[in-house]
Amino acid sequence: MNIINIAELMVNTPVPGLSPQNLADRIADQLRNELVHGKYAPGMHLSEAGLCEQLNVSRNTLREAFRVLIKEGLLQHIPHRGVSVIVPTLETIIDIYRVRKLIECRAVSLAYPLHPAVKRMRSAVSQAEAYQQKKHWAAVGTANMDFHRAIAELTDSPRVIALFDHLLAELRLAFGLLDDAEFLHSPYLPMNGQITTLLEQQQPDTAAELLSDYLHHSERVIIAAYSRRMRTDSRGNGFSHK
């Protein structure tokens, strides 16, 4: 995603509730949601036969859904090898965080303390803390996705939220570059709680400043993880497409 094209993408993003989706679009939505929830790792091969059976759809429908996600940059088709989950590039990671800062920090700075999305942020924090106690780090990651989606919901813009859903799928793939989920998520759980508390206490500017620092730190962690994985890949032990 190029930041220059954000306005165009927002204009062309279908607004939920305004037009019916066909089956392929719904399957694409489901697969995108599964990417957000960490079901598929970067570089993972997707079996047409297996997914058709799992989703109870035809190959033509699945291929149309694949085309949607390939166009979005979430999947890729390699001749004679089929479809696989994209491996984020360094440029993609940097751009993801650039867009996140534009959307999330602005949304928090303008947040209304009684907005329903603040309650969803608090719920996501509570869920993440519960999963943390159980050392269920993949679920912590999913709760973290829910937390940030709730931030996007502060905008009350269906187009921004739809754009952010796509961004979250790319973000979860970037997170997949780091094998240690505890290392990835544990430092940010207290910050999620602090940001939510600041909004509840009607301090949106302070919350936005904390979130800006948070995103800057997170970006550095993911870029470092990317660099390590690329060094490993250059030695012939990198991403698998199986």
From TrEMBL:
SMART domains, sorted: FCD (SM00895), HTH_GNTR (SM00345)
Q: Which InterPro entries match?
A: GntR_C, TF_FadR/GntR_C, Tscrpt_reg_HTH_GntR, WH-like_DNA-bd_sf, WH_DNA-bd_sf
Domain (HTH gntR-type): give its ranges: 21-88
Q: Which residue spans traverse the membrane?
A: none
Task: List UniProt keywords, sorted A-Z.
Answer: DNA-binding, Transcription, Transcription regulation
> Which CDD domains does this entry report, sorted A to Z?
WHTH_GntR
Q: What is this protein called?
A: GntR family transcriptional regulator
